[in-house]
Amino acid sequence: MALKVTSVLAVFAFAHAVEVQEVRAELSATARANATHAKKKRTARKGACDCLPWAGVYYDRLAACGRAQELYFLSKFGFSAAYAATEPISGLPHKVCNDFLKNLKDASCINVDLLPFPADDNTDKQWCYVSNDCDVLNGGEDATNTMGFQQAGWNNLQSVSNLSWKKVCDQASGDVILKYKTVEELIALAEANDVSKSRMMRLAYPVLNATWSEAMWIMEAIDNAWDGSTSLNDIVDSLTAPPATYGDRLPQVFSMVTDAVKSEIGTILDTPGHGDNFHVIKGREVWIVQRIGDVIVSGAHRGGSILGDMAYLGGHFSWEFDVNCTIGCATSRVAALDLETM
Fold this sequence. Notes:
Residues 1-17 form the signal peptide. By secondary structure, the chain is α+β, with helices and mostly antiparallel strands. It contains twelve helices and ten strands.
């Protein structure tokens, strides 16, 4: 009798064990399916070569600002980017890293060179951080692990980052490139992220080695000839280039400015010292970027305003500069009006 009871119990135990194994197998299969589905969703949502949001990269310590191309405007002259993240960053590097990029919750590509003078191979190229799994860096550099990052920074004087970065962003690959945005879009992006509008323009648009005083007559001539029916290219082509009677400078400026107008890509007209106040041309539009409270005397900016200082020191970086249209923007402004709610 005892033997029969033992046999029955053994059968039940075996059946229970089989049932438990089947349940575990089913749960394991479900878990694997869920994991695969989640991985596919992540992959579909974020490709390995998609640009990563700037602020998130630094917040998660996936890169240290200055180790890649953030401070190229200094490293091209010999500043060691390998030590950038270990030194006290002040002045313009502080404004680029701490005030701008670490607050920019956007994944758009920015200019490699903030101040592209003199021009080199990186001029007009834009870059961003990407996952270490990205195998199409377009001239960028592969990342290394944290220990390798530390060794490279301290021992080899080699500038490397925890994340890969790609030097040349490609619009055809889906990269969002700031230089193709309108001035209004850049203003909105700066305000949404509370970063400097002046720095936003500098990191988005190419720069001409020409001042507003040199280009003003060209833009005014285009505006005077605008009739709403003649194409912009035809108006530009109808302008007479200045002769080289007094040297090559005027013909050079004419060629640079008219080419920029025809491209209809936002372009900065530089100022002596490459300051934060400047003009932007985009097509026939002319915008002035000016620190709040600054005044203009005889065509030159006079800085040092208390209003601008207080906006910056108060941490409202998007308030520090105004960007206003001065020529050729009436159409875009009227289109932006909401006539139904006025």
